[in-house]
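Q: Here's a chain of 496 amino acids. Please give me its 3D structure as tokens.
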Amino acid sequence: MTTRQSWQRTKIVCTLGPATDHPGVIEQLIECGMDVARVNASHGHHADHARRIERVRNASLALGQPVAILLDLPGPKFRIGELPDNFRKLPEGAVVRLVAEGGITEEEGQAREGSNVLPVRNPDLLQALRRGEPVFLADGSIELCVRATTATHVLCEVVIGGTVRSGSGINIPESALTALVPTDDDRRHLAFAVTQAVEWVGVSFVQSASDLARVRECLPGEMGTQPLLMAKIEKRLALADLDAIVEASDGLMVARGDLGIETDLAEIPVVQKRIIAAANARGRPVITATQMLESMVEHEHPTRAEATDIANAVIDGTDAVMLSAETAIGRFPIAVVRFLARVLASTEKGYSLRTADDGIRATATASSPDNALSFAACQLAARLGARAIIVPANTMAPALAIARFRPQVPLVVVASSMRLYRNLALVRGVSPLLAIASGSGRIELQACVVQAREWLLSHELAKPDDQVVLVFASGSACEQPDTLRTIRLSTDECTG
């Protein structure tokens, strides 16, 4: 069986679902390269999510591999209700009737299988639709056109057919109907995320930095114990406020499904590059998502275009790529992660130097005293042929500050807490280690260096006489290990 590489630059996000519930699947996903397990709160119940999160936690500990949990909020999105057999085929030219899920009569309910009725979870949508307006389902793969509206339903003609599933999203890009982030449903899921101590929360349909501020207000507890917020860029308005959103977020997601409906599909490749570049410049982790290996939901082998798409995201500078239906409901969840890991490894081998140069050029022009040390550490490691950069850390800041320059060697971050250890699993090029607690509860620099040394040697990423670059706060004391030469740089603070 294919196992994960000892050091993987670009990270892999896998969405959990029925396909990952089978015994041993979670363990195999981690062994093949999963760094982040995504829970989509738009589907399923909290009991199911809690059970899956627990399985990931247990498998992660057993395998000694950090895996972060990302919980995606539904946001103000309209969705199809429950369908018989969980799907419905919509042939081109057919007429379908959109009705409120709670407003379906008993007779309609009994006849719904094979009928033209599509339940809608939010009845407000029915009141907003107008004749001639386009309606998109399933990430835009299905297009309807409104032909008539009544007080109880909306008649639509299928312009582009396909298969729609229970819970599929409904997009109406021309409608003025909007809702504020977070919704009441989002608040309920946020409370659940806190109880589960998830590392990341994906905020859907962000349109401005104020959306993220309102979500933060819903999070109890002190900074450092709250989940980090990932702004999902999928609205046209978000692009107009992108810089402010990047600044207000802890990470970004290029959510190409809804974004491809909100904006011209032909512009998505350029928009993707713009979002990734903005995240890289501010040292924010960024995920590229949607249809990375969509063909593998049903087929064991991907297309050539999909392999190229993944490689381009890596070259663009993404921190991670995300699998959605491929692992949640797909027939080959293990095979898809194995193939994704192969493409990532091949691309990184051929273009790692280019991505590092791009990272330096993108941030050097905006260089400040705060990131001068990070730049110097990467440059020094490259010029001396050092085998790693080691960073003891209490927060995300020093790791992000260095990772933004895309160093060519492993960035081994010895984290002071379990939460930080898992948070770092999303950051490109970072190999997180959980610090061994001392009697005082503080990180001991000597112990961190020894721990990182043993990890590098055991994974055959360094030899006893190799050099490394050590970045640590001034005032720390450490006796240099006699079998691993260490280049020391010290600073009062290392921030991005």
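Q: Can you summarize the key feature?
A: The longest helix spans residues 333-364.
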